[in-house]
C-alpha cells in the first residue's frame, strides 16, 4: 500500500515538473527592455540568503509578516512588535526610543544622529562610540521563557507540597513534567554522576528545561532563534565549563598535568592536548553542537519556503505549482525540528553530566573502594 502510494506521488511530481517546464518553454517570448527597467528588475530580485539570515539574526523587533502595496511600497503593512532602544555615548549621553523610529528597512536616522549600519548595529553618524543596552528579541524571548519556566515549575512544586502526586495521582502539567524529570534523573544524572547525582540534578534539570523551552519557542513563526545564537550557546557552554572545573579534584588534575605510566616525551605532547580538551574542546563541543543543529533546522525550513518564490520568479505557474511540494517538505522538517528540540536539550544536558562525572572520576573509584571494604 505504501509503495503504491509512493509510486503515485512520484508520478504526480514528475508530471507536475514536466508541465511546468514545458509551459515555461512554450511561453518564452522575446522581450525588449530599457536599461532602466533592467536595473529596476535587478534591484527587486529575490535574495534568499539575505532573507534567511535576517530571520536567523538577532534584531530590535519581532517581525511576523508583511502585506505589500505594490503601487506604493512605503504604505505596505508590516506586522511587527518594535522593542525599546537604550543606548549611551560619552558625547551625547543616554538615548531611549522605540526601534520603530528606524523604519521597517532600518533606513531612517533617529534624531539626526543614530542609524543602522550594514550589520544592523546602531552607530552614530558623527562616529562617536555607542554602547547598546537595548532589549533585543533574543533577550525578550529568554525573559519570556524564563518567566514561563518559573511559573510552571513553581505551580507544579506547590501541587506536590499540597500532596498532589504524592498521596494522589498527579494532575495537569504534573503528568507531562514528572516523566521528564525522572528520565533526566534515572538516565542522565545517576549513570554519569554516581553517588553525587542529587547534588547536580537541579542544575541539569534547569539546563534541560531552559534549552527545551527556548527551542520550542524558536519554532513559533516570527519568534527569535535564541538557541541558534552563538552568544547564548557560548554563555551556556561557559557556565557548564565553570561547573565542570569546580567539580574537579586533585586526582583529576594529576592525570591531566602528569599522566601516570606514560613516557616522558609522550607526556610533552599529551599534557597540552589534555588541557585543551578540558578548557577548550569540551565547552566548544557543547557550544557548537547546540548552535549548529538549531540553526540548520531553521535554514532548511526557510530554504523550502524560499523555493516557492524562486520558482515564482521563473514563472507564476512554476511558483504556484511548486507550492504544495515546498509546503509538504516544510511541514515534514518542522515536525522533525520539534523532535530535534527535545534531542538537543537532552544531548547538551547529557554531555554536561558526562563531563562533570569525568571531573571527579577518581572519587568514583575511591567511593567504590570504600563500599567494597565496608562490605568485606
Write structural notes for this entry.
With 376 residues, this protein is mainly alpha-helical. It folds into two domains: 87 residues, no CATH class; 239 residues, no CATH class. It is built from eleven helices and seven strands. Strands 4-3-7 form a three-stranded antiparallel sheet, with no helix packed on it. It has a two-stranded antiparallel ribbon with strand order 1-2. The protein has a two-stranded antiparallel ribbon with strand order 5-6. A hairpin with a 5-residue loop joins strand 5 and strand 6. Helix 1 crosses helix 10 and helix 6 runs antiparallel to helix 10. The protein is globular, with a radius of gyration of 28 Å.
* Computed structural class: mainly alpha
Low-confidence stretches: 5-43, 366-376
- Count up the domains: 2
Oligomer: single chain
Overall body shape: globular
If you average the pLDDT, what whole number results?
80
Radius of gyration from CA coordinates: 28 Å
Major sheet description: 3 strands, antiparallel
Supply the number of helical segments.
11
Which strands sit side by side, in order, in the main sheet?
4-3-7
Q: What is the strand tally?
A: 7
Distance between the termini: 64 Å
Order of helices and strands: HHHEEEEEEEHHHHHHHH
Question: How large a portion of the residues is in β-strands, by DSSP E?
Answer: 5-15%
Helix content: 55-70%
